[in-house]
Amino acid sequence: MKKPLIDLASGPQRFTLGNWNTRASVRTSEQCYSLPSDIEKQLETRHWFPPAFLPYLNHPVIKSADRALSHRLSANHLVYFLDYTTLLEHRIVNRSVEIIAHNELGISIPRTMKTSALQLYTDEGYHALFSNSLAEQIAELYGMTDRPVMPQRIVQLNALLSHTPDKHKALAWFMIGFVSETIIAKELLAVCRDVLVSSVQAMLRDHLADEARHSRYFSEVFHYVWLHLNSDQRAFAARVVLETLLIFFEVDEQWLRESLNSVRLDETTIAQILFDLVGPHACLLRARSGADATLKALKKARFFDLPANRQLFSMAGLVDG
Ligand SMILES: [Fe+2]
Ligand SMILES: [Fe+2]
Questions:
Q1: How far is the CA of 191 from the centre of ligand 1 (A)?
Q2: What pTM was computed for the model?
């Protein structure tokens, strides 16, 4: 008997990016992400980056200064964020996606999972392209010459990978991709809520639409991979997931200090700003509120059924004991 083209009995297909051909930004967007010609007018009411993400803009010294100072700090932050995104997509997430597409974990990869990995790889290449394009335009507008910087987060992820034994290398890459891809959608959703410069807003919206699909996909793939790991691999994976989560919620202190210095803030103001943002407690609070999609995926895969994992995450303060 001939096999049906679509097996309706198996229900919705797993491991897909849901109508990628008609939904993905790289296939559908007509944007070219150019800065608007009325940029000065837009900046009377709009922002480069959501102020809610930059709590230091509320510092009395910055609040009482000319609005141009806040715009410059926000532009610094946006360019840093876009340059970071470009690196993250190419050097971290897509390396992680290669692990799935080329079956480097040594477990059987379903055909839909592989196809979606190749689509996701394409998405991330496009995200890197439009992030870099906007970063270049904003840097040119402000005459920024000190970019791109190497973000602390990328340095720390690379250090984690370089300390990983060869036998677990592919697994570490996959887990870092899983954490990154389940965090970014919420981050972008929050970023998109504010009224931003039009092309920045359009770019972030396109990125968010793709990342919502990526987050679902990586959660499903994590579940599948987790079921195929032995106990040694699971113990290793749990530690990498935790370490990666904490890395993702640290503030890049060195870069922030340089950004604040670039607008000639005094040393006392800079120290006050950094004191509130840097440190393990502040990092943990951000992780607890920002990592819910990752934690949800872990729960769904019954990751916390292992008492050692529950203990590891509750000792780190990420879940209640
Ligand atoms: Fe992306
Ligand atoms: Fe993604």
A1: 14
A2: 0.93
